[in-house]
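PROTEIN DATA CARD
Card holder: Ribonuclease P protein component 4
Chain length: 106
Origin: Sulfolobus tengchongensis
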Amino acid sequence: MKRKNQIRKRIIELIEQANITAREGNIEIAREYIKLAVMYSRKGRVKIPLKYKRMFCRRCFTPLIPGLTERIRIRSKILIRTCLICNWQRRYVVTRNKGINKKSHS
Ligand SMILES: [Zn+2]
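Structure generated from the sequence above:
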């Protein structure tokens, strides 16, 4: 178990480093960091925490940074994230505790 925690820590570090690198404009290098993180995850059988999993494109491994490598659109409670590198799209249902159960007046 201890080993897995170490791998997870390494994965998180790599993803964070990838984000910084991508922001600096080195997208190619950033992708290598992500690829490495994914490889650690597979080899070590360690799951990437969801928060970090959502930080990169699962098709081309580019860190997703809004306005740089990612476009975010919200359309009637659906969040659409598009990778600007490979056009990969992912949809999320936006759930909020407030205002979700609004009664319709008709
Ligand atoms: Zn992509």
